[in-house]
Structure prediction request, 339 residues.
Amino acid sequence: MSGGGEGNSAYGHKAFKRSRSHFADRITADGRDGWPVEAGRYRLVVSRACPWASRSLVSRRLLGLEDALSLAVVDPIQDDRSWRFTLDADGRDPVLGIRFLSEAYDRRETGYPGGVSVPAVVDVPSGELVTNDFQRITLDLATEWSALHRPGAPDLYPRARRDEIDTVMAEVYEDVNNGVYRAGFATNQEEYEAACAGVFRRLELLSSRLAGQRYLVGDTITEADIRLFTTLVRFDAVYHGHFKCNRWKLAENPVLWAYARDLYQTPGFGDTVDFDHIKRHYYQVHTGINPTRIVPLGPDLSGWLSPHHREELGGRPFGDGTPPGPVRPGEEVPSRGRP
Prediction:
């Protein structure tokens, strides 16, 4: 999710196109791009509002990488200069010492194309951005960072299932993850209707798939579930109204609503979600489609904690592993962001 560039008022006034990650270096076990996996060297910068950044929050929790990869959470309301560290004392990130994420981008490259996006991984010693490749970051956390995983960490990208996981993720990305944005930022009726129809066509197919199995691929949580969850958890709060994806609410689809609640109530998922950040970001930043910047009071969030009964389908959430421990002190979601 980008900040900076042409400004927040541009949303909804030009055709939507997801920009490619300009900084696609990888942090790997062998350091082949010049960035070796190293505990304490890198800082993950996220917005809890952003579904793309939320993937990395869930992955980091599930894999137990909190000690190896420090976390910076930006203000959900970015301005036209980019994501801001205004949640921190003196408006500066305490580790990187910067006020705006754009400063880490500028240290890496001057005049780079595209906006300033999260998630971003920054090299602490140099203060330079390493990567903003949201599609690759979590896959590398699951595979390249394995030496630093906690004991009992799940295998989120099992080798034997990767082809199937990749296929499911590609369909979910095109029609759901990105589809809601194409609908929300459409500039004409035809564009909107095509995107919205695609969202719900894919959701119906996913509902059929999940009617008889607890998770998307195999009987354990994988990267595919993380990527679908981060859109579903935002669906009724912002995509249904703000992005006009309103054929039906998530809470009106028995299978997907139960699936989403099952994941939300699994350690590592719901404990990373801040509904307050989500709602304030979408409704106050996208002034092109919500010029009043009024944030709605609803929906009622209490249903996220209701019984889901998905355990009756079997499945082993963490495979041969174990759930992650408690949320680290200082990384808890404030009460106003939780049901």
